[in-house]
Amino acid sequence: MALIEAKNIKMYFPVQRGFIDSLFKGETTFVRAIDDVSLQIEKGETLGLAGESGSGKTTMGRLCVRLLKPTEGQIIYDGEDIADIKGKELRLLRRRLQFTFQDPTSSLNPRLSVGNAIADALKFQRLGTPAERKEKAEEVLEKVGLSPASSFYDRLPHQLSGGQKQRVVFGRAIIMEPKFVVTDEPVAMVDVSIKAQLLELMLDLKKDLDLTYLFISHDLATARHVCDRIAIMYLGRVIELGDRNQVYESPLHPYTVGLIGAIPVPDPKARRSEAIPPGEIPSPINPPSGCRFHPRCPKCMEKCKTEDPEFREVDTGHSVACHLF
Amino acid sequence: MTDALRIQDLTVEYKTRRGVARAVDRIRLSLEENKTLGLAGESGCGKSTLGRAIMRLVPHPGQIAEGSIYINIDEDIPCKKGDIPKGEVDVTELNEEQMRVLRGKVIAYIFQDPMTSLNPMLTIGSHFVQMIQAHNPEIDKEEALERGKEVLESLGILPERVTGYPHQFSGGMRQRVMIGLGLILRPRLLISDEPTTSLDVIVEAQILEQMAELKKKFNLTMILITHNLGVLAQTADDIAIMYCGRIVELASAENVFEAPQHPYAQALLLSVPDVTKPDKKLVWIPGAPPDLVDPIPGCMFNPRCPMAMDICKTQVPPLIESETGGFVACHLYGGK
Asked: Could you say which of A244, A264, A269 has the minimum Cβ distance to residue B230?
């Protein structure tokens, strides 16, 4: 059964305009960050969400844990639509759904000790006494590999390395023993030698706490190592979704083919076989007609320019939105 | 083949309040003309400092403490404060005015972050005009602008965009502008510091392809500084792996990737995720690099090294020729 299910989600952000403009110039324009996406995240899996900057992956992640309220559509968690809940109900929901932000340095308060940063999560949820919270936070510090916890508890973020800060961020997310964690580019800022360590920690935590992950990353090589399934996003849409082996070994969508072909392989003998798609991702304010990828697509047909391809399953568990299939 | 660049016992030190940190420690290397040298290593290993030292642009409080950097110049370069003769020139001996003439014309540097390296108050065209006129005051604005347009076009940017400001450009386009600015004066040696690090894979692949084409067109010798070993595998002829300011391995790209000699190089390669090998078990290096202000004796890698011996804790291993034809600094080799 799906733990989280997003149904026909749309997220439109109004474009900021000056006061005079808003008086005299017609309608507000919108950035269509997410445009009709449906996604199921199964219990216990790691679903990868990959794509270029501006494809909407972070927005999608934020929607799944209700850090954003969708413009349209439903988000089903545990049989319940959480798209419209607010207040106390939403606060209680945060115990189950957590999010780790992209940059550990800017997501930790520089004046707050890392132990307190973790314990404060409990305070906001009005759980436990100060002593209990401290005890629990120390337990969590050990769990994320910052041991002995007593020597880390009172440190400030600037006294930690990038990898250690990321561990604190993980700790803050798991102290509530959530069911579902969205991790936004957890290893984008660290060196390769530390990257493997953090990925291992993520997998250990998942096993220990029975977690489900949504792993947001633009680094497809890393995603391949940690995810069970991968969803590829382009300009506010999921254009391909499948088992990681299906997506990497037999990618269907021409964009996925280009994206995977563009990854630099650490082997001087491996030459690029696929042509790199030309140009850059267009503006989500006024996306291209028909298939959104058609201006850059090497296999573009007449139909692609006018008709939006349907997202459908072409093989067991492997879906794609492309007129070729 | 002549060497475009030869570095001898270069040491760069940062004088901090806590003490002196040796960011580059007695480095010796040479680079043949028209080759690409990749500098790799973790953050803080000194790769950017080494690149900047070649331009004599080590930021304060850093300074070149020792050593020479020879650059091969193929024509006499006039300068107000002493002409620079052709042939091998030691840039550490030149005065500031001579360096100013050399920078951009002979050696160009593409800085790490294109977002902060362009002036937000100037149009893209003005960047090119300033760059050209600083070196050739006799060229008028119109002609300088024309040259800028030409370079932009070869990088796939519409020439009419010269009137635009940096904020109107995407990250990939800004990086292309930086490359264009680096190449506009036809330098011989191009040092690019993490040119594609903040970019998406598709844009990264596009830019690396363009850089390879331009390198051929302009007969460039290149130094590519990056922590992304995948990028190096695709672009570099030779690779130098740095650790704590020292080169621990220097060999052809094939050798480094197929038969890394130094335990650090071996560990680094095992930690890189490879999209073509999903079952590769990622291994990490335990511990962290030592503090450069308070360096440890012997090989800097010894506390993290799985093969560490007694000698590693006392003696610094010299960079010696390895069996594979490269160079390695490790007591495991050389068999005394």
From this structure: A264
3-state secondary structure chain B: CCEEEEEEEEEEEEEECCEEEEEEEEEEEEEECCCEEEEECCCCCCHHHHHHHHCCCCCCCEEEEEEEEEEEECCCECCCCCCECCEEEEHHHCCHHHHHHHECCCEEEECCCHHHHCCCCCCHHHHHHHHHHHHCCCCCHHHHHHHHHHHHHHCCCCHHHHHCCHHHCCHHHHHHHHHHHHHCCCCCEEEEECCCCCCCHHHHHHHHHHHHHHHHHCCCEEEEECCCHHHHHHHCCEEEEEECCEEEEEEEHHHHHHCCCCHHHHHHHHCCCCCCCCCCCCCCCCCCCCCCCCCCCCCCCHHHCCCCCCHHHCCCCCCEECCCCCEECCCCCCCC
A69 touches chain B (CB under 8 A): no
Indicate if the pLDDT at residue A189 is higher than 80: no
Query: Which A-chain residues 205-244 have CB contacts (< 8 A) with chain B?
Result: 218-222, 224-225, 244
Q: Which of B233, B268, B272 sits opposite A268 (nearest CB)?
A: B233
Residue range A51-66: average pLDDT?
91
Please indicate whether, in this complex, the C-beta atoms of B43 and A191 are within 8 angstroms of each other: yes
Chain segment A15-35, per-residue pLDDT in tens:
877 777 777 766 778 888 999
What is the value of pTM for the model shown?
A: 0.87
Q: In angstroms, rounded to a whole number, what is the distance separating the alpha carbons of residues B70 and B166?
A: 35
Tokens of B233: 């595998």
Collapsing DSSP states into helix, strand and coil, what is residue A253?
coil
Q: How far does Cα B132 stand from its chain's mean position?
A: 23
Number of Cβ within 10 Å of residue B111's Cβ equals 19
Q: What's the rounded Cα separation, in Å, for the pair A103 and A188?
A: 8
At A92-120, the pLDDT tens digits run: 999 999 999 988 888 999 999 999 999 99
B239 interface with A at CB cutoff 8 Å: no
- CB spacing of B227 vs A193 below 8 angstroms: no
Helix (H, G, I), strand (E, B), or coil: what is residue A315? Answer: strand
Q: Are A262 and B201 in contact (CB < 8 Å)? A: yes
Q: Which domains are seen in chain A, by residue range?
A: 2-96+176-320 (3.40.50.300), 104-175 (no CATH)
User: Which pLDDT tens digit goes with each residue over A281-294?
Assistant: 888 888 898 999 99
Predicted confidence band of residue B336 (pLDDT cuts 50, 70, 90): very low
How far does B260 lie from chain A, in Å, by closest CA? 12
Which of B208, B195, B181, B297 lies closest to B244 in space, CA to CA?
B297
Domains of chain B: 3-236 (3.40.50.300), 265-336 (no CATH)
Q: Tell me whether residues A192 and B276 touch, CB distance under 8 A.
A: no
Give me B245's structure tokens: 């300011």
Per-residue confidence (pLDDT) for residue A271, from 0 to 100: 67
Burial class (CB in 10 A: 0-12, 13-18, 19+), A32: buried
Closest CA–CA distance from residue B192 to any residue of chain A (Å):
18
Tell me the three state secondary structure of residue A96.
coil
- A285 CB near a chain B CB, below 8 Å? no
B43 contacts chain A (CB < 8 A): yes
Q: How many Cα atoms within 13 Å fall on the side-chain side of residue A307?
A: 12
Strand A97-100 vs strand A80-81: parallel, antiparallel, or unpaired? unpaired
A204 CB near a chain B CB, below 8 Å?
no
Shortest alpha-carbon distance between residue A168 and chain B (Å): 18
